[in-house]
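User: Can you predict the 3D structure for this chain?
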Amino acid sequence: MIAANSPTGRPYSHSRQIQKPEELGELKMFLELNKLPFKDISLNGNIFLLFYDDEGNVIGSAGLEIYGEAGLMRSIAVRSEDRGKKLGARIVDEILLCARDNNLRSVFLLTETAYKFFLNKGFQDFSRNDVPEAVKNSSEFSLVCPASAKCMAFRFYRYGE
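Assistant: Here is the predicted structure, written as structure tokens:
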């Protein structure tokens, strides 16, 4: 569902990439409100996006930690009153575009609650054992998410592969 009065025709007014560590506070507050991990977040070459409504309120977030040619998608959240409006799908599309634009070959994620959603976005089941070591060593994989979280992967295919 697209916001009727959004000048962009998107279910959000605008998005913004966080550029400086001092800008992380707004993201961390949003993630805490949505009961997602936030204490281990840092920029360090990673990409974090915030999505806003027409009044400038944060209504969504997305993160992509970059490890060579692999990425770890995290911090996908939608404000509770905006769920069910396809905003989450648009947020995932945006962060996957960031992954593609950064020449990543694959994006991994861990989920406990959105398995079917990510299947519908083109992610596939993936064994934690086969995840690249750099991603496995991330705080999200090694400390934050429980072993019960499902591991999934999205692959970008290049011409000729």
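The two ends are 36 Å apart (CA to CA). The chain has a mean pLDDT of 89.
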